[in-house]
């Protein structure tokens, strides 16, 4: 045997013995199997601390009565829930929240039409159009709400100026008139949601193969039929996503309502949403127990509506 062959034979692992790499994999705490668990564990710890613990704490507070000046909370059972459901403000807040959510949901079909026109083949400056529609979504809702207060102003607002030019002699003072105020806020919510909707729907439209449209054209399908039988069915996953997000956002209505209606407005009690009712009870009246009960009601409402939407999506959403 040569000298090189003798060194190779001495360095080769013996039968039945583990290789150096194999010994590191079994013995090292930083093996491949430990790192994913470490990352997932940290993430789950953060979710538990910042999401699930506040929910649990809120449930506990909803069964307690706290003093406005501090002190030990008193366990009162379901008294907070009894007082809440006996208050007529709860039903009016639910009605206002549902009305706002339904009106904002009407922006999704409008967004589908806008996104389809932007993504038409051969259209120039598509990026510019997407940017123009998305820009309002980047602005602060409180700031845009102040601008829309000027638009809705009964004396010099642009909306009433247009209505007077069209022959309407006595247009309403939109955001101070009960019955009109929540509709005015809802129209603003519909307008502000279109930018986000268009971006999501444009991404969905890009995922639809052009070959389908070419095949439909060969078969004689017009643009309207292509939109009805190709675009809309294949866009349903994006539409379903927007439906979920818009519904959850509608149930969380607060900032825009606070900016446009505020305190001291004669229409304030007729436009109150569930979240503004929570704010009034928890922070204005310092009734944290009832406020926590309202938060639980909102959580249950959102959970029920979301579950219903997920069950119903099996009948109309097409996952290709």
UniProtKB/TrEMBL annotation:
It comes from Acidipropionibacterium virtanenii. PANTHER family: ABC TRANSPORTER PERMEASE PROTEIN (PTHR30193), INNER MEMBRANE ABC TRANSPORTER PERMEASE PROTEIN YCJO (PTHR30193:SF37). It is found in: Cell membrane. Its main location: membrane. GO terms for cellular component: plasma membrane. It comes from the Bacteria. Keywords: Cell membrane, Membrane, Transmembrane, Transmembrane helix, Transport. It is a multi-pass membrane protein. Residues 93-309 form the ABC transmembrane type-1 domain. The gene is araP_4. SUPFAM superfamilies: MetI-like (SSF161098). InterPro entries: ABC_transporter_permease (IPR051393), MetI-like (IPR000515), MetI-like_sf (IPR035906). GO terms for biological process: transmembrane transport. This is L-arabinose transport system permease protein AraP. Residues 1-29 are annotated as: Disordered. The chain crosses the membrane at residues 32-53, 98-120, 132-152, 172-200, 234-254, 292-312. Belongs to the binding-protein-dependent transport system permease family.
